[in-house]
Amino acid sequence: MPSQHQLARAARVLRSGGVVAHVTEGVWGLACDPLQVDTVLRVIALKRRDVARGLIVIGATPEDLAPFVDPEAADAWDKAARYWPGPVTCVLPARADTPWWLTGDHNSIALRQTAHAPSAALSRVFGGPLVSTSANLAGRPPVRSAWQVRARLGHGVDFILGSRADAPGVPSQIRDMRNGQILRG
Q1: For 4-184, CATH number?
Q2: pTM over 0.85
């Protein structure tokens, strides 16, 4: 588990518009403030990812994630809550005012209340939800170490927050709460 000092430093980097590489449930990820469009677009460019695909947002609590969900989607929200906290990313109907840089070309958003203690601690110390996308170039294998983060992403990452994965090498499952379909894993 990262120290309080490391978490506080990572949170300062995030608040100032920086990108933090950190371990998630299974792979290394990139975190940033989901409401800072310039930083999110920087992450998308760093990964060479198509903005149309959208991004995953994680939080330590359901309250971190609820503001992104369509208030009319109570049934889908209740289904997602059955998987949380845990390693399941749930696709839910997005609020009409959810930023386009998070949803991409979709009217939905991918959310996860993480059970990974270091990721949840980072969200809590930061004070809210975080973009959480794998720390690899689009279409490339997952990054499995801090060394690989630096080798593959260079100085595009402003801070590396080390810890351990709960299930090394296994990305979170993604489920669509609107129809029950498993989209990944």
Answers
A1: 3.90.870.10
A2: yes
